[in-house]
Design a protein that fits this description.
With about 240 residues, the chain is of the alpha/beta class. It contains eight helices and seven strands, in the order E-E-H-E-H-E-H-E-H-H-H-E-H-E-H.
């Protein structure tokens, strides 16, 4: 976990899990946009950022066996989880690991632009494609700029982590379990053709307290600088933080 702006006495620690190919850096501005009562910490998986030279994980079960114990020291204050797309799947499994292994639950789980974890895949897997074909499919997600996609040197650095992340998603095997004890709020992009409303709404079966909210934007609406303000209103609603002065 990377905490860009550590707080001395946070009322809440927000653990953020980025989308496929994303790094902790995508949450850098959140620390500045959310109040000082919230400490934003973002997951930095192997194969990106400062961990660029480490071998990325390709299996969620193996990832969780390493990730769970590594994150326990961050849970010494009230905490909540936010996950975007693949990050929502990882956050969900992390919350289940906590509930089953150490009987801890977050204040809340927010899932953005993510199909419910129990739903079967609705597209063909791409993580095993040759690099040129993988890049063609990657364009469909509109999360990587053409400038980057057309830069062979940069793509050479990014492809291992990107393919590994798609492997995490595409080889994931859901196992039935008890609903989470924490509330879940799901956000769906009104112009998102990757995680449509019905598939996001299906998260409801994984908790006893659920809400679904539309957000203007495509699959990458959490990158909008206005989105953390929307999240702040949710943090206040669930008494996680004080109202900003």
């Amino acid at each position: 976990m990377v905490c860009f702006h550590p707080r001395s006495h946070p009322k809440l620690r927000l653990l953020c899990f980025p989308h496929a190919g994303g790094s902790a850096r995508v949450f850098y501005k959140w620390s500045e946009l959310l109040p000082s009562t919230v400490e934003v910490c973002a997951l930095e998986l192997p194969g990106r950022g400062k961990r660029l030279l480490e071998t990325p994980f390709t299996n969620i079960d193996l990832l969780l066996s390493a990730l769970g114990p590594e994150l326990l020291p961050f849970l010494d204050v009230p905490f909540a989880c936010f996950g975007h797309s693949l990050g929502a799947r990882i956050a969900f499994e992390f919350c289940r690991w906590l509930q089953e292994t150490v009987q801890l639950t977050p204040q809340h789980l927010w899932a953005a632009a993510a199909r419910a974890p129990h739903l079967p895949p609705d597209t063909k897997p791409i993580h095993g494609l040759p690099d040129p074909d993988f890049i063609v499919e990657l364009r469909r997600y509109s999360g990587t700029s053409e400038e980057v996609l057309n830069n062979p040197e940069l793509m050479g650095l990014m492809l291992p982590a990107l393919k590994a992340d798609f492997s995490l998603l595409e080889t994931y095997q859901y196992r039935p379990s008890a609903p989470l004890d924490c509330p879940i709020t799901c956000f769906w992009g009104q112009w998102d053709d990757i995680a449509i409303q019905a598939d996001v709404a299906a998260w409801q079966q994984h908790t006893n307290t659920f809400s679904l909210e539309p957000v203007p934007g495509n699959h990458f609406f959490p990158h909008d600088p206005l989105f953390p303000k929307r999240l702040l209103s949710k943090l206040m609603k669930f008494n996680c933080v004080e109202s900003p002065s």
